[in-house]
Design brief:
It is found in: Cell membrane. Residues 1-21, 325-347 are annotated as: Disordered. GO terms for molecular function: G protein-coupled receptor activity. With 358 residues, this protein is mainly α. It has one domain (31-314): Rhodopsin 7-helix transmembrane proteins (Rhopdopsin 7-helix transmembrane proteins). It contains 14 helices and no strands. The two termini are 34 Å apart. 37% of the residues are buried.
Length: 358
């Protein structure tokens, strides 16, 4: 977002009185943000490309909507790194300094917000899909498939692009010395609502329902054999852990930026208070870290993902024949075990339909 730029000054702001300029807060971090964002870009961009290739192989192999949503999340993270870190911060601030026209600054700002919205809201349909898979497995078999997931992803990205347009008028918090006006209030509250409060509310509600359903299912399975319980718990635990890790890391890393933006709005200005300036710099650095950590979360949780990443790094080809989708494998299993018709066994099979391919 353009408000990250400590050195880029629109032309109308360059004419501010020198007395006001002397009261402007200094960036106490110096060149540390430039070094940090350069390292983050050099690590995060290749890692996200590797993640995208691995997820595309898993999508072709399993035909699961889950990997389509994860691909959308990774693609949005790549766009965020491209527009926010590379174009917005490194090029505009560290290379061109004040030579960037105002119209270009504002256009890049709108693209930065759109990329951020797409990165965060790509996780929402993933959370909804996992909730439906666990709580409504029969419905999940009917509505969750890659083609539908791609349409949902396309709609989310289109809405994210549209939502970035109003932020063409986003103020540079480092440089604007006037108190926030009506437009600033509206844009800041729209920003924190779209980027943090609304998606976190969805994550909190759906993840809570998922955890409650898992606990209830574990209590119902107490009469089954120990081996079945361990197998089912392992399958459910891995996929749930991946989802909870993604959403929890986002909530933690973006909380400081949200708090500092609201503090700037109501208490003290980033422009005049060096402590708020420092907090804003650090909060932005933490928020951008979210675009590079998902690869390591996937590797930690999923053995299948680690195996595919190893194949990609060793330049091994994908299997010639993709695996059958999970619901097809389960349908054949149901046909051979039609005599098992008790309610407990039906519930167990439905759980496997939704979660046996993390």
């Amino acid at each position: 977002m353009t408000d990250w730029h400590n050195e880029t000054v629109p032309s109308h702001q360059e004419q501010e009185p020198s007395t006001d300029e002397s009261q402007r807060s200094d960036c106490v971090l110096g060149y540390i943000p430039i070094v940090y964002y350069s390292i983050l870009l050099c690590v995060g961009f290749p890692v996200n490309i590797l993640t995208l290739v691995a997820l595309s192989r898993l999508t072709a192999r399993t035909q699961k909507a889950l990997y389509v949503y994860l691909m959308a999340l990774t693609s949005s993270d790549l766009l965020s790194q491209l527009f926010i870190i590379f174009v917005g911060f490194l090029l505009e601030t560290a290379v061109f300094h004040r030579k960037v026209p105002t119209i270009l600054l504002r256009s890049v700002s709108a693209l930065e917000f759109a990329a951020n919205h797409a990165s965060i809201w790509a996780t929402v349909p993933l959370t909804v899909d996992r909730y439906v898979a666990l709580c409504h497995p029969l419905l999940h078999r009917q509505i969750s498939y890659p083609a539908r997931a791609r349409r949902i992803v396309g709609a989310v990205q289109a809405l994210a692009l549209v939502s970035g347009v109003p932020f063409f008028w986003w103020s540079d918090m480092w440089r604007v010395s006037q108190p926030p006006g009506v437009v600033d209030f509206a844009l800041i509250w729209a920003h924190v609502t779209i980027i943090y409060f609304l998606p976190c509310s969805i994550f909190l509600v759906l993840n809570s329902l998922i955890v409650l359903r898992l606990r209830r299912r574990q209590h119902r399975c107490q009469d089954e054999s120990r081996q079945q319980q361990l197998a089912l718990a392992g399958r459910l635990g891995k996929t749930t852990a991946m989802l909870l890790a993604i959403t929890s890391v986002f909530a933690v890393l973006w909380a400081p930026r949200t708090a500092v933006v609201l503090y700037h709005l109501y208490v003290a200005s980033v422009h005049k208070d060096w402590r708020v300036h420092l907090a804003y710099d650090l909060a932005n650095m933490l928020a951008m870290l979210n675009t590079a950590v998902n690869f390591f979360l996937y590797c930690f949780v999923s053995k299948r993902f680690r195996g595919v990443v190893k194949d990609v790094l060793l330049i091994r080809g994908a299997p010639l024949q993709p695996q059958r989708p999970c619901h097809q494998r389960q349908a054949s299993a149901n046909a051979s075990n039609s005599s098992l018709s008790s309610g407990a066994m039906r519930s167990h099979r439905h759980a496997n339909i939704a979660w046996d391919c993390p």
